[in-house]
Amino acid sequence: MKVPFYDWYRNTIRNSQYRWLIIFGTLAYILSPIDLLPDFIPLIGQIDDTVVLGLLIAELSTAMFDRLKAQKTTEVATVDGVASSDTVDVNATKVG
């Protein structure tokens, strides 16, 4: 089941142009006493803050792991300190 807010949040936080705006907006929402469920109601008031914080942490960790995976695949493989782009692959055959 896809939740429209979750899809919007995920797509917006992955857009580098709006990433910091969403992060700061999320933190402001968590710290603000004005919420969807008011914080002065015990337990119920913290549910929305916890859900939004969990969403932020999940999306930031996913973005971080995706970036690390992309970095790992773009690194040049080295053998004995020599970059693989500096080596020549030769298929030698016996002559004679």
Structural account:
- The chain is mainly alpha-helical and 96 residues long.
- The chain contains 3 helices and 2 strands, in the order H-H-H-E-E.
- A hairpin with a 2-residue loop joins strand 1 and strand 2.
- Helix 2 runs antiparallel to helix 3 (44-74).
- It is rod-shaped.
Give the assembly state of these chains. single chain
End-to-end C-alpha gap: 69 Å
Indicate the radius of gyration in whole angstroms. Answer: 24 Å
Beta-strand fraction estimate: under 5%
CA-based shape: rod-shaped
Q: What do the pLDDT scores average to?
A: 79
Structural class: mainly alpha
Please tally the β strands and state the result: 2
H/E series, N to C? Answer: HHHEE
Largest sheet: 2 strands, antiparallel
What percentage of residues falls in helices of 4 or more residues? 55-70%
Number of separate helices: 3
Strand order of the largest sheet: 1-2
How are the secondary structure elements laid out?
Blueprint: H1 4-13, H2 19-31, H3 44-74, E1 78-79, E2 82-83
Antiparallel strand pairs: 1-2
Helix pairs in contact: 2-3
Can you give me a brief rundown of this structure?
Keywords: Membrane, Transmembrane, Transmembrane helix. It is a multi-pass membrane protein. The chain is mainly α and about 100 residues long.
